[in-house]
């Protein structure tokens, strides 16, 4: 029985986790953030790192410490809530948003730069590309474990090397100076970056991928719970360090790019990255970057399709893993053809609504030993969080709320910054604690 992983094994598992996390959103959002934040880029990327790196790390740690996945964490409020939340979670990081995005980003970076203007405006290239991409995903997701591990080990160093070349070239021969911030990043760049980090979906994915890390550690002969948790945390730190370095680097590339690439649309990170690679290295830059991104997105797509297949086939036993994987792949193909900008626009309101719930679930899991079975604390905190999260989601969807939005802006702290749910979440937990003191004793240890 082992009680400690070797540094080689820790690094290998950390790189595997990085490869699972590192897909479409990780490449396309930081450059646009950097370009729009301008001189405020470091504050903005600081906020982005909180939700894009910090929260995923906390999610992995929460799973490692509790030994349970997404449903197990959400079940602490109520089993019915746990099922509903987990289904929404898997659909969000699965066929509704994240999986289709891997295909569209691969297309935007790997193929679109080489098409003529007429071809790029046609729906046919994306349609054919998405059929091929998700056909390969389906075939490989039928037996994903060895493939994802191998691609992760081979691809991750190559992909990091490609990004490093772009960044080093951008520093050595800058594309231009860092400009003034866009209005959206003038007043509160830290909080704007914090909300942008939602789009990576990595905090949601962390409580799914966390179990993959726990399993990988156990497969290396570790059985003692504390040692497993410690090994998972170390592997999580490796992945988090890699993500942070990539985000900071790509944000700088974006911040220095406006003069060379023009101001791209807020949802066109793939286009910005392609223009930057072409400016710095010519067409060869697009070829190398496109190939690396294609395999990175394919790895993530396989991992997510496989995770959805395992979860939904266990939730609905009448449907086999193979059937679920086929349905998820076909549906993702359809959604991918909406285009990258449309997928991002549709995903934002949903992410704004469910991310706060995921954050609260993760944070409460660290207090579980003190909560000690008082379910009402979870319920009250999540109800208070959910009310404001849903309102934020409706605002993000541009659904009119009458005068409610103005009232909340004037009365709820931090609401204007997009995190009006934070203080209500704390108040809900406190109210739940007070109620529990009078209604239910804590769970006694077995």
Structure explained in plain terms:
The chain contains 21 helices and no strands. With 446 residues, the chain is an all-alpha fold. It folds into two domains: 7-344, Up-down Bundle (Amino acid/polyamine transporter I); 367-446, no CATH class. The longest helix has 33 residues, at 283-315. It is globular. The protein starts with 6 loop residues before the first helix and ends in a 7-residue tail after the last helix. The model has no long low-confidence stretch (mean pLDDT 86). One of its GO terms (molecular function) is L-valine transmembrane transporter activity.
Write the layout of secondary structure elements.
Elements: H1 7-21, H2 24-37, H3 41-66, H4 70-74, H5 79-96, H6 98-110, H7 117-121, H8 124-141, H9 144-172, H10 189-196, H11 202-219, H12 225-255, H13 258-261, H14 269-281, H15 283-315, H16 321-336, H17 340-365, H18 368-371, H19 375-396, H20 404-411, H21 422-439
Helix pairs in contact: 1-9, 1-11, 1-12, 2-3, 2-12, 2-14, 3-10, 3-11, 3-12, 3-17, 5-15, 5-17, 6-15, 6-16, 8-15, 8-16, 9-12, 9-15, 11-12, 14-15, 15-16, 17-19, 19-21
Subcellular location: Cell membrane
Pfam families: Branch_AA_trans (PF05525)
InterPro entries: Brnchd-chn_aa_trnsp_Livcs
């Amino acid at each position: 029985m082992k009680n400690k992983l070797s540094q080689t094994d820790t690094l290998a598992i950390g790189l595997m986790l990085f490869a699972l996390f590192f897909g479409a959103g990780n490449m396309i959002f930081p450059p646009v953030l950097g370009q729009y934040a301008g001189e405020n880029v470091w504050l903005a990327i600081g906020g982005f790192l909180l939700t894009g790196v910090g929260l995923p790390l906390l999610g992995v740690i929460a799973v490692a410490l509790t030994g349970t996945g997404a449903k197990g964490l959400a079940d602490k409020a109520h089993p019915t809530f746990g099922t509903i939340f987990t289904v929404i979670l898997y659909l969000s990081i699965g066929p509704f948003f994240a999986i289709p995005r891997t295909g569209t980003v691969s297309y935007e970076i790997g193929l679109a730069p080489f098409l003529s203007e007429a071809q790029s405006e046609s729906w046919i290239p994306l349609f054919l590309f998405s059929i091929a991409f998700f056909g390969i995903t389906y075939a490989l997701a039928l037996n994903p474990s060895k493939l994802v591990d191998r691609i992760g080990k081979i691809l991750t160093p190559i992909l990091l090397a490609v990004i490093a070349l772009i960044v080093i070239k951008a520093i050595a021969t800058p594309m231009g100076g860092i400009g003034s911030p866009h209005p959206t990043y003038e007043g509160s760049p830290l909080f704007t970056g914090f909300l942008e980090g939602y789009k990576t979906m990595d905090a949601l994915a962390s409580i799914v991928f966390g179990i993959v890390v726990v399993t990988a550690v156990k497969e290396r002969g570790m059985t003692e719970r504390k040692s497993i948790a410690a090994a998972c945390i170390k592997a999580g730190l490796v992945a988090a360090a890699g993500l942070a370095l990539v985000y900071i680097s790509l944000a700088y590339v974006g911040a220095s790019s406006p003069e060379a690439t023009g101001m791209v649309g807020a949802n066109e990170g793939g286009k910005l990255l392609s223009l930057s690679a072409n400016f710095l290295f010519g067409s060869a830059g697009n070829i190398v970057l496109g190939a690396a991104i294609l395999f990175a997105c394919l790895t993530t797509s396989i991992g997510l399709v496989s995770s959805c297949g395992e979860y939904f086939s266990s939730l609905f036993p009448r449907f086999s893993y193979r059937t679920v994987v086929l349905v998820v792949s076909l549906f993702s193909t359809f959604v991918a053809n909406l285009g990258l900008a449309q997928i991002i626009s549709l995903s934002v309101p949903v992410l704004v609504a469910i991310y706060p719930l995921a954050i609260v679930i993760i944070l409460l899991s660290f207090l579980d030993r003190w909560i000690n079975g008082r379910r009402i604390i979870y319920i009250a905190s999540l109800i208070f969080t959910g009310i404001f999260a849903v309102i934020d989601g409706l605002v993000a969807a541009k659904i009119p709320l009458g005068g409610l939005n103005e009232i909340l802006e004037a009365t709820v702290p931090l609401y204007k910054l997009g995190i009006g749910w934070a203080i209500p979440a704390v108040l809900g937990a406190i109210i739940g604690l007070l109620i529990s003191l009078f209604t239910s004793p804590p769970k006694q240890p077995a």
